[in-house]
Specification:
With 223 residues, the chain is of the alpha+beta class. The protein has 4 helices and 10 strands, in the order ααβββαβββββββα. It has 2 domains: 51 residues; 163 residues, no CATH class.
Amino acid sequence: MKREKISETIQNISSKHVDEATVYNGGKMIKSRKIWITLAAVAACLILCVSLFLSIGREYVKLDNGDILIFNASTHVGVANMIGSGEVRDLSESEIKSLFKELPVTKATVMFDPDNENVWSIEGYINGKTLLIATPVYSNSCKVDPGWYSFTSNVNGISVEAGYLFGDANIVIYFAEFKLGESTVYIEHSGLKEENDTVKKEIADIIEKLTELGEIDLNIIKK
């Protein structure tokens, strides 16, 4: 079709049809834009709701190495003392030093399997925090179950399951469980509810230092 013919054809198009086409296209673009804006708002609300849900019942501590330790709300704690009928003795200062390096572990005792000379568990204190270390055979005695939607933290490359609860008599209890080599470590600390932040920070610092050990070799302890 020649240029003159195309020009003439365009000029013969009714202005009514041109106006209708303009309104229709514009309406379609506006409608499409409104749909995307609505979807974006719904998505943002969903993300916010999920974030709020996941943050409920959790306490966070940023450690000196930059890791984040998460304490999950719980209804109970693990076992914080040795249970069994094995032979028990105190650890010597040299044994404590070999196991825990510079950590200030005190009142440490070791329990042996009554049928052989293998270590079952070690119990002691680090600046007032209860410490329990168990071998694989004994580790079920100090199992932690912070909750069905609990988060596991990673501290110095080690998975840490940590929790807390507010008990009776205005007390708050923080606790954690993790593995160092084949040994299961359980640590617990408590204090007044108004000292919650202090108690949480104190146990978090000890957890960081314990995980720095990498592994605890209980084979150096002899009956």
